[in-house]
Write a structure and sequence with these properties.
13 helices; DNA-binding transcription factor activity; DNA-binding; Tetracycline Repressor, domain 2; transcription; about 270 residues; HTH_TetR; Arc Repressor Mutant, subunit A; transcription cis-regulatory region binding
Length: about 270
Amino acid sequence: MTKRKTPEALTRDDLMQAAATVDPELRRRSQLLWEDRVQSTRGPKAALTPDDVVRAAMQLADEDGLGAVTMSAVSTRIGYTTMAVYRYFPSKEALLDAIVDAALGLPPRPSEPRDDWRSELARWARAKRAMLCARPWLAELPFVAAPHGPNWLSWSEAVIDALSTTGLDSADIGEMLSVLDGYTRGASDTAISLARARARGTSDAEWAAAVGADLGRAIGDPRFPRFAALLTTPPSRPSRTMDESFEFGLARVLDGIERYVNGGRR
């Protein structure tokens, strides 16, 4: 009997080998993401298309968050029966796969003439942050064993393309992709939270007061002395805005990648 590896021990090769034995349901969901949705020019035009369903589901998510997306709610929005939705998407999970990939959209195209790799990665990170803030409900969907659609892969392709000029090998490029994407998502959490609050009608002042009250619980609590000191110590410089903080951290990430590219590898 083969011993199962812990998630921490899995390698890229393990993931590629596992792709050959993917769960049939996940394989079907992946097929739905990748199959051509362009309508045939032959015969009568269909009254309802898969893209109609996806657009309606995205509208619901934009208005009331991901929890509002149900097969029944989507069918009501488009004016068809629930069975009509199931005709294209056999499960809610398959529909969520489709709206997530559609919401991601496409990454920014490389400039002409091409910028240096660092400028392209910075533009990519800003575009992804803007996309996540425009669709804050994307953050409500935990990453699980879900298929990756063409738009998701396009964002990865853009980073790989930019880094292909650096001389890094494929393994290192994959690591740098994870570093950049991880920073972009993590450093956007607060901005996404604010965007979600705004979408629900909460004012910036109300959101800030609620966040401040939560963070303020650390003051006086012996479990969090360092965090309390961070909150109460007078700043030595003007505070950065959320966008400025993102740019500061992004520059540090790119500094690290540049140092590695220029010979600081271990």
